[in-house]
Amino acid sequence: MFDFFEAHPWKIVENELRPDHKRFSESIFSLGNEHMGLRGFFEEDYSGDTFQGSYIAGVYYPDPTKVGWWKNGYPEFFAKVINSTNWVGMHVCIDGERLDPAHGQVTDYRAELDMKQGLLSRSYVWTSPCGKKVAVSFQRFLSMADVELGAVRCEIKALSGPLSIVVTPYLDGDVRNLDSNYGEKFWDAAGHGAKEDALYLKSISKKTHFEVATAMSCRFLHRNDEHDLLPQSCSQPHRAEAAYAVGLAENETMALEKFVAVLTSRDHEAGDLIDLACRKVLQAKELGFNPLFSNHVAVWDQKWAEADVIIEGDVKAQQGIRYNIFQLQQTYAGRDSRLNIGPKGFTGEKYGGCTYWDTEAFCFPFYLYTNKEVARNLLVYRYNHLERAKENARKLQLKGALYPMVTIDGRECHNEWEITFEEIHRNGAIAYAIYHYTEYTGDTEYLDSMGIEVLIELSRFWASRVSYSEPKQKFVILGVTGPNEYENNVNNNYYTNMLAQWTLSYTLQELDRLERTKKDLFKDLQDRTQLTRQEELQWLNIQQKMYLPRDEERRIYLQQDGYLDKEQKLVADLQPGDYPLHKNWSWDHILRSPYIKQADTIQAFYFFPKLVDRAELRRSFDFYEPRTVHESSLSPSVYSIVASLAGYEEKAYELYLRTARLDLDNYNHDTEDGCHITSMVGSWLAIVQGFAGLRFEGNQLAFDPYLPQQWSGYSFKINYQNRPLSITVTSGEFVLKQLSGDPMIVRVGSKTFPLSPSQAVLAPTRRAEA
Amino acid sequence: MFDFFEAHPWKIVENELRPDHKRFSESIFSLGNEHMGLRGFFEEDYSGDTFQGSYIAGVYYPDPTKVGWWKNGYPEFFAKVINSTNWVGMHVCIDGERLDPAHGQVTDYRAELDMKQGLLSRSYVWTSPCGKKVAVSFQRFLSMADVELGAVRCEIKALSGPLSIVVTPYLDGDVRNLDSNYGEKFWDAAGHGAKEDALYLKSISKKTHFEVATAMSCRFLHRNDEHDLLPQSCSQPHRAEAAYAVGLAENETMALEKFVAVLTSRDHEAGDLIDLACRKVLQAKELGFNPLFSNHVAVWDQKWAEADVIIEGDVKAQQGIRYNIFQLQQTYAGRDSRLNIGPKGFTGEKYGGCTYWDTEAFCFPFYLYTNKEVARNLLVYRYNHLERAKENARKLQLKGALYPMVTIDGRECHNEWEITFEEIHRNGAIAYAIYHYTEYTGDTEYLDSMGIEVLIELSRFWASRVSYSEPKQKFVILGVTGPNEYENNVNNNYYTNMLAQWTLSYTLQELDRLERTKKDLFKDLQDRTQLTRQEELQWLNIQQKMYLPRDEERRIYLQQDGYLDKEQKLVADLQPGDYPLHKNWSWDHILRSPYIKQADTIQAFYFFPKLVDRAELRRSFDFYEPRTVHESSLSPSVYSIVASLAGYEEKAYELYLRTARLDLDNYNHDTEDGCHITSMVGSWLAIVQGFAGLRFEGNQLAFDPYLPQQWSGYSFKINYQNRPLSITVTSGEFVLKQLSGDPMIVRVGSKTFPLSPSQAVLAPTRRAEA
Q: Which ipTM did the prediction report?
C-alpha cells in the first residue's frame, strides 16, 4: 500500500517528485468544478510518463460499438468523454534550456492540494543540465464561483543569475484520448486568433459537434511592471500561444498569471462562443488572480459548512474523508441537471465519463442530506431521460422504461448482453432514490410533477419483465444479473425481485395518495400516461405474488435460485494469487464460484433495514460477508453500514477502512487511471448512515450512534427539511444541534427527543459491542 | 423460397443469369477438392454484384480479438480463412469491348454443375453494347486426383464476324477478405515471373507466413493450331497474366485451356514452391485437359460408388441429397489429418473456415459409414491437438483437456464467454466420436494408440469441472451453455451432464479392458499420463453421483435446472415477425423464453437411443419439439432421426425436408454468404439413421427401415467392417446386399438375419404409422 502523503487534516502533500507514480499523483491532484476538470499534470513541460487529461462535462464522442459477435439490441456507440484542450500549459525556457523536471535536478519538491480552498500548488528548485538554478512554483484553481473560468499562476525566482527567462503560456487543442482506437482524433479545429489581450482557440467535436471556445489572457509581473505580449501568436490550427521574455538577476522573481475561459455550445450560442470566451477571460484578468480566487474560496467555504465531516483522533481518517468530500463536490454540484456523476469524474477517461447506477445507489444520499437541491437535479436528470428509457425498453420488446446501464445522454452505451440487457436492477435504485428524496425532504413536489411518471413507467417495465412460474405459483424474474456481477443470467435475484416488488407497491401507494388528495393531477396523469385501473390491479397481483428465493434451513433470503448448489467456499479459502478474481480466473470459473463481487442481498438490507429483523440481518451478514470479495469499490461501505446496523461494530470499522482512503492509498492499484469518484461517497455513508446510524423513518429523523474505538470523536453536518443540523459523537455522548428552522422530534437509539435551535439533543451512544 | 434450379438427378442447372442472386448462385456452384476451393464466380469480367472467394485449406490469418469488455481467458485471435489468388480469371476482349455479362445482352444462359463428374460449365450468347455477338462457354474443375491442380476451358465462337479476340488469362493475388477490418490485406507479394511456358505468382500470408505459389500455363486452340504466348507478362507484384490474340471469322471458334497449380509451404519446402508449381502445371498442360479431367472423374466415380444415395420417385429430393454429398466430399476427403470441416467449406468466409463441434456431432457418421479411413483422420486431428486442448483447460484453471469451440490449429478462436468458456459439451461429442468409431469399425487400434489418451484428458476435465451440491447430494455442472445456445450460463444442462457421466464411464470401461488385455500398453499409458487408481475411483464416484435434471411429473429429463419456471409457450404461439428470434428479439428476451434453438436434450437421445424407453422418447419429443425453433441448420435432421426412432414417421419426413435442400432452396436466406456444409450431412443422416434406422449395437449392425410415403424407394451404400453394403428400401421391402467380405449377422426390426456376399437379406419394412 502507498503511504505517500503527509497526514494533514486539510491538505494532500507530496514531498517528492516520483516519476514512477506520476500518473497516480496526477489522478489525486485532479481539480474540477462540475463544468470542467483536469488531472494534476504539470503546467511546464514534462518528458517523463504522464497522462494529460482535461475534460468538459457533457462533451463526448460516440465511439462505435465493437464486439466480436453482435447481439440484437446492442447500442450503436459507447460515449467517450473527450480529452480536451490543455489550457494550463506553459513552456518555460531558462537561458535557452527548457524547464523539464524529468531532466536536470529537482530538489525541495512539494505538491500540495489545499482542499479547504480548492487550490493546487507545486514548487521546487530546479538545476538545469547546464547548471542554471531556479525556484519555480505553480498555483492553479478552477473557479467554483464562475465555472467557466480557471487560473494558473507561475512564479520563477533566479537562484543563479543573471538568467534570461521566456515563459510561453499556451492552449493546446491537439490532444487525443488515451483510449482512442487507432489513435483517432475526436476534435476538428474551428478557428484561432486574438481579441484584444485574449488568444482563443475553437474546436468542434467530431460526430457530436460540440463547439468549445477556449480563451486565455495573461498578466506578466516583474518588478511590479506588466510586460507586453510578444507578437507571437501561433499559426497552428490547434494551438494558441504567447511568449513573455524577461531577464532576471540572481534572487529576482517574475510571475505570470494565466486566466482561461472554457465555454461550450452546450451553454451558449455557438456563434457567440469566441466573443463570450474572450470577454469573460478579459474580465477575469481585469478582476485579478486574488479576487477571482477569493470568490472561488467563498463557494468552498459554503460547501464545507454544509457537508464537512470532522474526525477527532485520526488525522489520516480526517484527511481521507475530506478528500472524498472534496472530489464529490468538484465532480457534481447540481447546477446543471443535464450532468451527472461519472465514476472517474474529471480524473480519468475510464468508463467514458458516463452515468452508472452508482449515482442513485450510492452517491445520492450524500447530496440529499447536505443539499437537497443538488439531489433534486439528479432526479430531474432521470426524468429528462424518461422518453429514451422508454425507447430502450421497447428495444428489448418490453413495456415502460428501462434506464440505461451506462449513459451520457439517456441512450444505452454498454455492450455486454449480461449487463446491458440483464442488469435491470438499475431501475430499482432510481425508484428508491425518488422515494428516499421524498421521504427525507418531506416534499412531494418532485414526485407529483415528475417522479410519479417515472414510477409508472418503471412499474410497467417490471410488469412486462416478470413471468409466471407454474411450479412456483409465483411471479419470477428470469435471466438477470444482480449487483453481484460475478453471476450472470441468473433466475430470481433476490435484490432485483425485492426491488421490483417494492417499486410496484410504492407506485400504487403514491398513485392512491394522488387519487385521494390531488384529483386533478391524478386525472391529468391518467390521461397523459394512459394508466388504467386494470393495470394497477395487475401490478397489485404481481406485487402480492412475487417470488423471493429463501433458504428455510438457514432462515435467510438467497441471492438467487440455486445459489446453494455451488461449492460453499469462503473468501478465507482463497490464495493471495487469486486476487483480484477477474484478473486471475476465467469468467466461467468466477461465475460458478460462490464468490460475490459486491453487496447484493446485503444491498437490499442497506436500502430497507426493516426488511428482516435484526437476528436475520445478522444471519444474512454472517452468510454473505465471508463470501464477498469486494472487487467493486462500492461494496465495503455498504457492508460497513449493514455491519453497523447489525451491531458488528468492529467489522463495520474494518470495512470502513477499505473505502476511507481508497485512492489516497491506491488500495486497488489502479488510481493512475483516475479516482473512484462514485465510491468516495462510501466513507461518508459509512460514517453518517453507519456509525451515526442516521435513518429517516416516516417523517422522523433517527440516529443510532456509536463511536469507533479508534477515534476520539467525529462530527458532521446535514440539512433536514430546511434545518441545518450539526451532529457530534464522542465517547459515550451524542450531541445534535439545530442551527435554524422549526422545532422537530428526533429519535436517538430507542428514545425520542425534542429538537430546536434553542434545544440540542444530548444522548448516550450505543455501547460498543464486545 | 427459391425454386431456381431444374429438377435433375445429377445436375444443378440455372437457366438464367440473375444479377440479384449472383452471390447465391456463386455459393451453390462452389467447387473444392479438400486442398482448395472457390466460389462459382465468373472467369470473365463481371461488373455486377459478386463475391469472389478462393480459399486454400489450412491457410489462415490470425485476426486480433476485438471485444468491448475483455474477459480473462479470451483468445488472442480469431482465425480467418484467407481469400487467396483468383486463379480462374480471364479477361476477354471482343473487337475492343470487354466481355462483361453485366453489360450488353445475355441470352441462352446456362450454368450447370455436374455432380457426377465435379464439373462446372457455363455458356451463353453475348451481344456486346456495340452489337458484336459471340457464344461463350467455360468449364472448370478442381482435380480430385491431384488436388493441387485446377483447370479452366474457355470457348468463344464468333456469331457475328469477323471479330478480333484477345483472351488474357491471369492470376490475381491482390485480393481481400469480404470480412477484413478497415480493408486490411492479408497477403504480401513475394515474387512473380515466368518459367518456360508457366507464369507464377508467390504470396506470403501476413503474420502466419504461409507461402503460396500459384502457377498457370495455357493452351490456345484455333483451327487446330496452338498459338504462342504474347510477351506480355505482367509487372505488378500481385499479378501474372498473358494475352492471346486471334481473329475469328463468323461461326469460327477458339478455345483456351488454362492449367493452374496451387502449392503451399504447408506441403512443400518454401524455397521449392515456385519450381514445383511451374513443373506441375507444365506437366498438367502436357497431359492435356481431357486426360486430366478423366483422372478427376475416376475419383468421383469411386466416391459415388462408396457413398451415393438414390431416391426413387422424387427427383428434387434426389438432387438435394446428391448435392449435399457432393459438397461434403469436396470439403473433406480425409487425405490430410491437419484439416477439418469448416461450416462453410470453400463456399464462403463466415465462421473463418474453422472447426466446430459440427464435425464430431454431425458430420462424423457420414465419413465413418462410407470410408472409415476418412473418419479416422478426423480423430487423429483431435489427437494432434490434445496438448493445446490441455493448455486451453489450464487457461480456465481446469485439469485435463478442453477442446476449443472453434479452432484452426488447436487453439481457441471464439470470444464470447458464454460459448468459449461454457459450451463445454463439445468435449462430449469428441468422446462420442471415438466410441462411435471404435464400435462401428470393431477396430481398437485408434482407441488404444491415441483415443484413450484423449479420453483420459476429457475425463480429467469433467472431474475438475463438476462440483458437489450439498442440497442435491450429487455432482453438478454449473454455468454451462448446452447445444441450445438460446440459453446461456445454465446449471445442469442434461445433455452436458449426461455426456460427462458417460465419458467417465466409457473411459473407465476402456481402461479396464486395456488393463486386462494389454498390460504393457496400459502400464505405458499410466506412466505417460500419470494416471492413478485414486483418479479412476474419483471418476467412478462422480459418474455414480452425477445429477441429471428430471421432471417427475412429466416423466422426462429436463433440459436444465429451472427450465419449467419459464412461461411454457410453444413455437405455435410465435408470430411470423418473430422469426428468426436472434434477429428480432433482444438476447435477454431469447434467454428467458422457453424457445430452444436446436436439439439439446433430444441430441442426447440421438447419440444414445437407449437412454430412455420408447414411451419416454415420445414424451420427450412431444415436449421439446413444439418448443424448438430450429434456428440452427443442424437441428431438424437430429429431430428427424429421433422422430423416426419414436415412430413419428410423418414428422420425421417433415423435418427431413427442412435440411434436404437447405442451400439449393436458400431456406435460411443466407446461402449468399456460403453453403451450410456441415449441415448438409443432416439429410444423409436423416435417411440412413432415420428412415433406414441404421444402428450399431455392440458388434451387430441393425436396421429399422421404413419408406417415407412420398417416395417410391431409396437406396444407399455403406461400408461396415470392410464389407461394402448396399441397402435398398422400397414399399414394404428392405433389401440388404453385401458386395464382398466375411459373412455376418444383422438385425432388421426385431429379427436377425445372416448376411454374406452370396446371401442377401430381404425383410419387411416397419409399417408406416397412421
A: 0.92
